[in-house]
Amino acid sequence: MDDKEICIETYGDRDASYDDYLQHLSSVGPEQCRYGLYDFEYEHACQGTSDTKKQKLFLMSWCPDTAKIKKKMLYSSSFDALKHALEGVGKYIQATDMAEASYECVLEKCRSTDRS
Questions:
Q1: Span 15-40, pLDDT tens digits
Q2: Within the chain, what is the greatest distance between any pair of CA atoms?
Q3: Using CA atoms in the order 93, 19, 87, 78, what is the torsion angle rounded to 10 degrees?
Q4: How does 68-105 read in b/e, with b if 16+ C-beta sit within 10 Å?
Q5: Residues 106, 41: Cα–Cα separation, whole Å
Q6: Cβ–Cβ < 8 Å for 17, 40
Q7: Which of the residues 16, 37, 54, 64 has an alpha carbon 20 to 30 A from that of 26?
Q8: 24 Cβ partners below 8 Å, 6+ apart?
Q9: What are phi and psi of 79, to 5 degrees?
């Protein structure tokens, strides 16, 4: 694959879970970086109201600490260009390990810009 081109490697099913997304990230190998676009659904409660379902499309840059430095630099520098090329993305997330990519961590980042 050409290092100067960003290609779509796989599409997830509309009903795929966030665990499926994480499983794919971990399956690419400990030295591989990836970009991931995910439509994240979660519960949100404004003050004085009941929980409502929210969705946020996020773009994740997945660059594990174990990836080669050249690859991490390439992904990091391309992330800004990718951000500008995509419309409708509600959150940008950079993750270097499964803790940063975890449901809880992503949920916290998505909720951080919600009104309470």
A1: 899 999 999 999 999 999 999 999 99
A2: 52
A3: 50
A4: eeeebebbeebbeebeeeeeeeebebebbeeeebeeee
A5: 11
A6: no
A7: 54
A8: 10, 12, 36
A9: -60, -40
